[in-house]
Amino acid sequence: MNVKTVLILLILALATIFALVCVLLTRGRAPSTCQHRPPEQEGTDDTQSLVFADLTPEEMVQVVRYLRGNLGVQLVDASHAKPSDNCIASVDVQVPAKAEVLRFLDGGGARPPREALAVLYFGNQPDPNVTEYVVGPLPMPAYHRDVTVQKYGRKVPYHSRPVTGKEYVDINTLIQRELRKAPRFLAACCESDGTDLAILTTAPRGFKSGDRATWFVLFQNVAGTGYYLSPVGLEVLVEHGDLHISRWQLRQVFYNGKYFASPQDLEAAFVTNLLEVIGIKKPQAEAVLGSMRPRHPPGSPGPLQYEPQGPRYSVRNNRVTFQGWSIAFGMNLNSGPRLFDIRYHGKRIVYELSLQEALALYGSNCPGGMSTRYLDGSFGIGRFAYELVRGLDCPYTATYMDRHYLAESETPKANQNSICIFEHDSAIPLRRHFSDSQSLYYGGLRKSTLVIRAISTLINYDYIWDFMFHGSGTVEVRVHATGYISSSFLYGQGTNYGNRVGLHTLGTMHLHHIHYKVDLDVDGQLNSLETQDMGYEHVNVPWSMQNTIERPYLRRERLEREDEAAFPLNTPMPRYISFASPNPNKWGHPRSYRIQIASSSGEHLPTSSPMERSISWGRYQLAVTRRKEEEPTSTSIYNQNDPWMPMVAFADFINNETITNKDLVAWISVGFLHVPHAEDVPNTVTVGNGVGFFLRPYNYFDEDPSVDSPNSIYFSSEQDAGACGANPLACLPATAACAAHLPPFRYGGFLNL
C-alpha cells in the first residue's frame, strides 16, 4: 500500500469520526427544536394601522416649524416661557374621524390626511387664552384651523391651562425667597435654610373659576429616597395667577395646625414662644423612612420567562398580532395608552379602547392634603410613562417600544422602551377537565395571554396599565397602583384621615378612580344594550303539586335610552350587560360582548360639590352613550385648574337619546379606596391594589374559539402520556434545551429628566 492510499484512507477515517461525533452531539434533539418560528401573519395590511400612529419626531418638528412661520405672533420656547409669553404647549396626533377611518380600512377609501393637534398658550395678547389648532397635512403642513370653540363650545380661559415646569421653577424660587424670612424657625423645625426642602404641588388651585392659588407641602429631601414620607409640617399657599411673576405672592403659611399670614408672622410667633415647634432632624439616606435601597445582598435568581423558538407574536409599526388578535397601539400625551381597531380573526370587536383619566382624591387635616384632587391627565399620563426596567417591569425578553412626545418644549423627546409587549404564561389553565367516569382522559389548554403594558409615574404614584388579550376572545384591562403614598404631617386628630406610618407621618386616605372609553363594534357598528340577571319564581313542583320550589329564571331586558344605561356607583347593576349585534349566532342568540367590571369604587365626590361636574364621569360605574365625534373624551386637561367651570362635563353626554341599533360607547369607571398603613412603607404593593374590567364574548361565537388553538393538550388512559407524539408536554425537556438569548441590560430612563 503506497503513501497516497494511506493518506486517502486516513482522511476518510477522520471524516467518518467527525460525522459520528456530530450525530452523537445532536442525538435526542430534533434539528428544528430551537429554530425560530416566525408567527403566522394575518391578512391585514401592516401599513393600515398607521392611520392611528403617534407622531414621529420629524412630524413634530415640521409642525413647530409651520406654526412659527404662519401664526404671525412671536413664540417663546415653552421650556423658558413666562405666563406673559406665547408658546407651543404641546403637539400630538389628531386621530381622524371614525367615519373617514372606516371608509379607508373597510371600504377601500382614501387614506385620511394625517394631522396634528397643537395646543398653544397665548399670554402675550390683550385677551390671554389657550387655543387648539389642527395642523396638516403631514409630513409637510400647509394649513391650520382653530378648533377650540368647535371642541369646547367656548374659548379656553388662560387661568385653566396646566402649570408648566417653568412655572413650578418660578414658584419654587418665590417660596425659597420668602422662607428666608423665617431663618430661626427653619433651623429649629427642619435643620434647614429652606433651600434643601422638597416642595410638592396640590391641585386644584382655589375655590372658584379664575383662581390660581396653590398649596405646596414641604418635605425633607434626602437624595436617592422618596421624600413623600417625610413632611416637616410646613405648607405654603402661593398666589400665581398674575401674568407677571413679580406680582406673585405667598399668601399664607401653615405649620402644625396653625395658619399665619406670612413667614415673618411665623418667625415672630416662634421667637416669642407662641408656637410649638417639633424639631425634625435631617435623616441619613440609609435610615430615612421609605428608602428602597436593598437591605440584603442578592439571593438566587427566580424563574425566567423566555420563548424557546422566539416570540409567538409579531410587532410591525404600531400593530401587534398574536394568535388571531390584531391591535393598533399608541400613547396619548395627556391621557396615556390607547388602542384602536382591535380585531379577532379578522373581525373588529373594539374600534377604540383608551384610558381617559385618573383621579386621586385625598383627605387630611392639613390644607394641602384636604384640598387635593389630582386629575392626572392634566399632568400627562402618557408624557410621564418612562422607560421600563427589563426583567422587573416586564419580562426580560419582552419587546420594548419607544414613544416620542412634544410638550413644554419645541424639541421632541423620547421615552425609550416605554411600552412593552409580551406573551405571558399565567400558570393556570385557560380551561381543563380530568374525566374520572365513563371514559378516562385529560384535556386542557394553558392560559397564554398577550400583554401590552405601560407604567406612568405621576408624582408619587406609579400606575401600571395592562391590556391583555386571551385565547378565548376576551379582552382584559387592568390597572395596578404602586409607588409612594402621599402623606401629611401628623398632628391633632390626624388619624381621622389615615394611619400613622412614621414618627411624624400620617399616611393620608385617598380614592383612586380611573376612567376608560370603550367603543365596541360587535359584528358591526350598530349595537344595542342588553341586560340579564337572575330572579326567582315561586312555582308548584310539576311532579308533586302539593309542594313548591323557588326556581331561578333569567330576566332579559333591552335598554332603550341613555338614562337607563347610566348605572350610578354603589347601586345594583345587572350582572350581565352586553353590547348586542342584530345578527344571531348559530344558536339564534344575538352575537354579543359582555362588559364585566372588577372594581370597588366608592363615591367620587358629593354631587353638591361645586367641582363635581368636572369629574362627573365618576358618578357612574358604567354609562353607555351614542357615539359622537364631538364627544371624543370624558374630560379635559383644563378641568384640573378650573373644575368649577369645566371645559368638558361628562354628565352632559347623557341626554336620554335612543341607544337601539346605534354606534355606542361604553364609559367605564374602576377604582378603590386606599387607607395607607404600615405595610405601605416603603412602597404600596400591587397585590390587592388592582382593578379593571373584561370584555367577554357572549354568544358571539358558536363555541369557545380557543378550541382551534394548536396548544391544546389531550391524552387518554389508553395513550402513553410520556410520548412526545401523543402529548406536547412530553416534548418540553427537549425544548428546554434551547438556551434563551438575553440582550445585555441597559437603562436610559434618567436621560430626559
From TrEMBL:
Signal sequence, start to end: none
Keyword field: Copper, Metal-binding, Oxidoreductase, TPQ
EC number(s) per entry: 1.4.3.-
Gene: Aoc3_1
Domain Copper amine oxidase catalytic, residue spans: 305-706
Family: Belongs to the copper/topaquinone oxidase family.
Modification 2',4',5'-topaquinone, positions: 461
Stretch list, region Disordered: 291-310
Protein name, entry field: Amine oxidase
EC category name: oxidoreductase
InterPro entries: Cu_Am_ox_TPQ-bd, Cu_amine_oxidase, Cu_amine_oxidase_C, Cu_amine_oxidase_C_sf, Cu_amine_oxidase_N-reg, Cu_amine_oxidase_N2, Cu_amine_oxidase_N3
PANTHER family associated with the record: COPPER AMINE OXIDASE (PTHR10638), RETINA-SPECIFIC COPPER AMINE OXIDASE (PTHR10638:SF4)
Entry cofactors: Cu cation
Active site: 376, 461
